[in-house]
Write a structure and sequence with these properties.
The radius of gyration is 27 Å and the shape is globular. It has two domains: 9-353, TIM Barrel (Alpha-Beta Barrel), CATH 3.20.20; 358-397. The protein starts with 8 loop residues before the first strand and ends with a helix. The mean pLDDT is 95. A hairpin with a 4-residue loop joins strand 5 and strand 6 (159-163). The chain contains 14 helices and eleven strands. It has helices at 24-40, 62-72, 90-103, 118-123, 131-146, 186-194, 206-225, 247-253, 258-269, 279-288, 302-316, 332-351, 355-366, 368-397; strands spanning 9-14, 45-48, 77-84, 108-113, 151-154, 159-163, 176-181, 197-200, 235-243, 298-300, 321-326. It is α/β, with parallel strands linked by helices. The strands form two sheets. It has an eight-stranded parallel beta barrel with strand order 1-2-3-4-7-8-9-11, surrounded by nine helices. It has a two-stranded antiparallel ribbon with strand order 5-6.
């Protein structure tokens, strides 16, 4: 039987995706507005990506976004989703994360990865074959730095000489960390080796879905090898979706921008991604075969989503946080409605927030006859007392 967290957490993962016709200033503003909305809806987390090419994924610095959004929100935790370690000196990045943790009073999560877009690596002169090695080297230094250790380390792309942080993170013993995991075992191995969380960003792709259970097994094996402890509660799974009150409405909502998504992936992947002629064809492809790393999406109702989360739990063996992939395939209004439906009708099922309410009404229903009998007895007693008082007054005045 799959592990079930006592209270599953919910959040959103912002690459983000904005078509190249949108005003970039307003695109960034809309992401911040949506995160503020998620905060009001009691979502637990928002993760914000780092990309440097391709137009659609237009956030270059998740730290800057987090610093701004933190001022507009009260409770939601904010993560880099993810910081591309291959492009940053680890001491500078560690210092930025620690400062951000103080500014947010401990609401920061530090998500890390090698860097996803090959165009980014090309522009910086980084060989794509070196991305994962660089991530592992940087992560080894970052974990030590963020725990207050002094680090001496020499690689072919960074040097640390008696390097230490002069301000440690606000959180104790350190900021929460998670490493991106897709189809290869790289992320799962790193999560286990360093005893940090895992962020499964390709769980909705056919290959990623099949790899879920194996990813956690790899993570646990590496943790045991390195004397670390890992918890499924710190495992996050990312999934693209859009829900509405009916399946028909959910499909209609995607008239706004799903074709743009297909256009984006076709430009990046060429013949690996099909060209489509209609919205219905696009939805059918997205919800069956999927869009590569973007995965197989769910377009339906709150009940459909709840059933799919159960399916993900069974396939993976259990995880702690479900993250919706933000995609802008629906309008801002329909997107907010989708998240509202998740908060109202999906989250309570996995957070057991209505368990006592259900027990209370069942108890009240089971005792309804007894309670009504006592209720009516009280009413009849009051009526009788009133009548007796009236009769006594009448006799006294006669």
């Amino acid at each position: 039987m799959a592990y079930r967290p006592q209270r599953m957490k919910f959040g959103a993962f912002f690459a983000p995706f904005h078509n190249d016709r949108t005003n970039p200033t307003l695109a960034l503003e809309s992401d911040m507005d949506l995160i503020a909305c998620l905060d009001k809806l009691s979502f637990d987390e928002a993760w914000i990506g780092e990309h440097h090419s391709g137009a659609y994924e237009c956030i270059a610095s998740p730290e800057i976004m987090i610093a701004t959004v933190a001022e507009r929100t009260r409770h939601i935790r904010l993560g880099t989703g993810v910081s591309s370690l291959a492009y940053h000196h680890p001491l500078i990045l560690a210092d930025r994360i620690a400062q951000l943790d103080h500014q947010t009073r401990g609401r920061v999560m530090f998500g890390v990865g090698p860097g996803q877009l090959i165009a980014d690596a090309y522009m910086m002169g980084v060989n794509p074959a070196d991305l994962r090695r660089r991530m592992n080297e940087s992560l080894a230094a970052l974990v030590k730095l963020l725990h207050g250790e002094t680090v001496n380390m020499q690689t072919d792309w960074f040097t640390l000489r008696e390097a230490r942080m002069h301000i440690l993170p606000y959180q104790s013993p350190t900021v929460e960390m998670a490493v991106a995991s897709a189809i290869s075992p790289t992320g799962a191995r790193a999560a286990g080796e360093f005893g940090i969380g895992m962020l499964s960003v390709a769980a909705s792709s056919p290959e990623g879905f099949k790899a879920l259970a194996n990813s956690w097994q790899v993570c646990e094996e590496k943790a045991a090898e390195h004397g670390q402890t890992v918890s499924r509660d710190n495992w996050r799974v990312v999934f693209p979706l859009h829900i509405a009150e009916t399946r028909e409405q959910a499909r209609k909502d995607l008239e706004y921008g799903l074709m743009d998504m297909f256009n984006y992936f076709h430009k990046f992947g060429g013949d690996l991604f099909p060209t489509v002629k209609s919205l219905d064809e696009a939805i059918d492809i997205w919800t069956t075969g999927g869009l590569g790393a973007f995965g197989v999406g769910l377009v339906g109702t709150p009940d459909d989503l709840a059933a799919h989360i159960e399916k993900l739990q069974e396939q993976s063996g259990g995880f702690g946080t479900f993250l919706s992939l933000a995609h802008n395939a629906a309008s801002p209004e329909a997107t907010r409605k989708s998240y509202d439906l998740i908060a109202r009708y999906v989250m309570p099922r996995f957070q057991h927030s209505n368990a006592n309410r259900a027990a209370s009404i069942e108890w009240a229903a089971a005792n309804a006859n007894r309670f009504m009998e006592a209720y009516m007895s009280g009413i009849n007693s009051a009526i009788q007392s009133h009548e007796e008082e009236k009769a006594a007054k009448a006799r006294g005045g006669a």
